[in-house]
Amino acid sequence: MRRIVGIVLVLMLMAASTAYGAEPIVIGAIGAITGSAAMSGEQGFRAITLAEEDINAAGGILGRPVKFIFEDSKGLPTGGVTAVRKLIYQDNVVGIIGCHQSTVVMAVEQLVRQEGVILMAKGSAAVITEAGNPWVVRVREYDTLAAFAKVKHAVEQGYTRFAIFHNTDQFGEGGRENLLEALAQFGLEPVAIEAHNTGDKDFTAQLLNIRRADPEVLIVWTHGDEHALICRQVKQLLPDVVYYGSMGVSQASSIQMAEGTSEGAFSTSPYSYLNPDPDVQAYVAKYEERFGRKPETFSVLYYDSAMMLAEAIRRAGTVDDRSKVMAELKNIKGWKGVSGIEYSFDEKGEAFNEIFIVKIENQVPVIVDKVTID
Known about the structure:
Blueprint: H1 2-21, E1 25-31, H2 38-57, E2 66-72, H3 77-90, E3 95-97, H4 102-115, E4 118-121, H5 127-130, E5 136-138, H6 143-156, E6 162-167, H7 170-185, E7 192-196, H8 204-212, E8 217-221, H9 224-237, E9 242-245, H10 252-258, E10 266-269, H11 278-291, H12 297-316, H13 322-330, E11 335-336, E12 342-343, E13 354-361, E14 364-372
Parallel strand pairs: 1-2, 1-3, 3-4, 4-5, 6-7, 6-8, 8-9, 9-10
Antiparallel strand pairs: 10-13, 11-12, 13-14
């Protein structure tokens, strides 16, 4: 009996040693660690770090450890291309998670198409999946869904007079077009449309033009830092207007920068750390213990992407055939992640068709509704 037990222990140790020494499965990720969008990139980096720890603690993938390599896109198309080229040609990754900026995603789209590498994009511009790249999926709300949800929610509150204020970058221009389409579905046109550039600090002229049009609702489609500054000036110049922002306005960093002026603002988001869903709260607790802060939206989207890609590799049984891994990824339906949203990839590569309406109450984002597109 002792001999048998000894043999079993030796075999177990050999198996463990083999798994530990196995060549890791390498997965890439990109996001802005430096530059104006660094806060969002840091969220993604922390999530990927946690995902690597969790996957390896559970035994890895196909008996091999997983190694995530996160590269800084700098929030720029050129930075994204440099990062993706390194991940593909030097690190030989099976797939790439990110970037959270649409301009970067579109800059690298042709490269991943050419090399046949999976890209789980975080940009929200409609063109990302409309480009028809078979190697690209999106794990984030897309702009058409977000625009429709904002307009639908506002119309249901009885509002009919809308103004649009958008960034002039690809994200903002696409948002404007999607808002116009959403308003048209309800037989409405905006009473005013104004724009600003990334990095602007003074929005007085545009907001005065909007005030003259006498809107009930102002929909602002821009990034978190600009949202914070716009909220301050809207509070002074348009105190009675109902504010609907893009996802950035409900991020903790933007709420803090707004210094109380975003109170009462609405946003669309696939996640809130206040969601009582047990899976969401378990992740919030684990993330907060690990990093000393609550996870924000990109934290859960990068984490869920990592876990779904790991599952696709398990189902495919290989990392050498990327097309088989991509097929298994697109076959994922009803996946319950830590965002509170169920993921089901459609033929275009969109991961979900529902989104939360959140409202900033007492300086935190509270879920007040959910909008679904059939």
